[in-house]
Amino acid sequence: MTAEPRARRRGLRHVLYRRLFLPRLLHIVRDRVRDTDRRDAVFVSLMGGVGDLVNAFPSIDRLAETHAVDLGTGHDPYRGLARANPHVRRVYAPFVYKPIRRAHRRLIERVLAPFYTRVVLLDEPDSAWQTRGRHMSAVYAERCGCPPPPRGAVYLSHDARERADARLADLGVKKEYVYVVQLVRDSRPLRSWPLVHYHTLCARLHERSGLPVLVHTQGSDDTAVPSFCRPLHAVDIMTAAALIERARLYIGPDTGPTHIAAALGVPTVAIHLGHAPEISGALGETVMLVRQRRPGDDPALTSPDAVWDAVERLRVCA
Fold first, then answer.
1. How would you write the chain as a 3-class SS string?
2. How many other C-beta atoms are found inside a 10 Å radius of the C-beta of residue 10?
3. Tens digit of each residue's pLDDT (9 = 90 or more) over 95-137
4. For 104, how many CA atoms within 13 A lie in the half-sphere containing its CB?
């Protein structure tokens, strides 16, 4: 599917989901009225993306130490990621509204406030977050009333790991491998590393590491991969997370799977393009960040050599 039909389908889906906004609010109220769990409860809303949820989970988990937590989030893959979190009592998905519309925010707060100890809307109310210079995990932590976490969190089930085992068997991969996310989007030119750079990097990984190279292309406008790579053209987010968990090395841009890899403690090279990494960069002690000289520079200026230097500094492919 090309970028234009994908964008049309995404827009139609959001229109349809927004029509569920008021019925979803009433559904949440109904559940609270009927609830036999009389603990104090907090309602948290975060529509996505995947990296946002991963970075919000540690703060949500802290809330769950003293309250039951109900979470409103987007459709899959966000729904699957949220349902795997054992600290979240209920997941309402898709929970879609316009965060920049003050009327929507006020309505959510006023309707749910009588039934919850707190209503925490984590989605940003405007676009100024791009200039505030604070990492999203710190913003989420402040709104939840806890300290900023050192990294995100992801929860994997036995089923997800079994699906990962099956996928590896299909690919003929038995032991260690490198996991690369190739994400090229025409709609986001300033956040898309050139396809030729990905292929150059994969060739170097193949030649110098001797490890199989799995290339995740879910959501990419260009899914062509070199013949020596194992393509992952269609994989759900939890299976992808289970595959990432056992990778010897992960490489990817600023996208959901990169935050998953960092949260799982996998040696990670994050190719950060677009927004400043101080705002949305992957967090963790195993992360090697490849940053642009200036946010918003031409992505082609971030060379495969610069990424390979980061790989060598991690010392996992020697």
1. CCHHHHHHHHHHHHHHHHCCHHHHHHHHHHHHHHCCCCCCEEEEECCCCHHHHHHHHHHHHHHCCCCEEEEECCCCCHHHHHHCCCCCCEEECCCCCCCCCHHHHHHHHHHHHHHCCEEEECCCCCCCHHHHCCCHHHHHHHHHCCCCCCCCCCCCCHHHHHHHHHHHHHHCCCCCCEEEECCCCCCCHHHCCCHHHHHHHHHHHHHHHCCCEEEECCCCCCCCCCCCCEEECCCCHHHHHHHHHCCCEEEEECCHHHHHHHHCCCCEEEEECCCCHHHHCCCCCCEEEEECCCCCCCHHHCCHHHHHHHHHHHCCCC
2. 11
3. 988 888 899 899 999 999 999 999 999 999 887 777 778 999 9
4. 18
Domain 158-314 has CATH 3.40.50.2000: yes
Q: Which two tokens stand for residue 58?
A: 């540690």
Asked if pLDDT for residue 246 goes beyond 80, the answer is yes
CATH topology of domain 3-144: Rossmann fold (3.40.50)
Query: Any idea where the domains of the chain sit in the sequence?
Result: 3-144, 158-314
Asked whether the beta carbons of 154 and 86 are under 8 A apart, the reply is: no
pTM over cut 0.90: yes
Average pLDDT, the chain: 91
**CA nearest 268: which of 208, 311, 217?**
311
Tell me, what amino acid is at 50?
V
| Exposed/middle/buried for residue 165 (C-beta within 10 Å: 0-12, 13-18, 19+) | middle
Q: Which residues pair with 281 in a beta bridge?
A: none
Buried b (16+ CB within 10 A) or exposed e, 213-246: bbbbbbbbbbbebeeebbbbeebebbbbbbbbbb
